[in-house]
Amino acid sequence: MQEARPIQSEVSGYISNLLRQHFGKGPASVYVTIKRPYITIHFRGFVSPMEKILLDQEEDIRVLETRNFMFSALKTEILQELLNITQLDFTELYVDWNLSLKSGMFIGVMNEELAWDSFEWPEDTQRDVFHKQIERVNEEAARIPDKIDTFWMSNRTLLLKRSGVLVGIEKALIDEGFVDMLKLTKRPLEHKLLKAAPLHHVLQRNINEIFMDWNFSQDVGYIAFILAAEPR
Fold it and tell me: Per the database record, which ranges form the Na+-translocating membrane potential-generating system MpsC domain (predicted)?
């Protein structure tokens, strides 16, 4: 694999051009972090002129539906280009958008074994307490996940993986083809519960943004926390 900085710059440029080509306007900035088996791509200042008109008319759902449709169409292309640039075979790709802050997040996942020593928790944080708080949030929303794993991608990006998150009614909705509707319902609820939880006390960081997405066929979900640069 090449040096990290050139790879990150190349991925950043590719994502900027991709969004500009398909939405008519690229993001103001793109931040790429690679720590195998993950890549996080956080972009800011991203909203097209047409989307701005819709958002001004409170048509958020239409914007999200269009973006998610476009992402589904581009997913294979993005994964292939990430392989070309990084020489890393990311097999899964997750996405979420923060329309109010004009930002978004792509999360790529490789199918390889984790090197846990690459994701040690900072000394001023409490991993077990954080996991317990996440369990309480999930229990209030639906159910406690079978397993929770967390990965510090950088000082400002904490990635969380939840396995075994679906309840019976959600599985039934998925079987009936209501995947997009389920995501549009789950996101606002879980965002609200996460923001209300005292997670920042445990992390010793203010949480600036939260992104989440799921792979319902695998019953797995990811949450990316974008944190303030300085400890509290």
Answer: 7-111
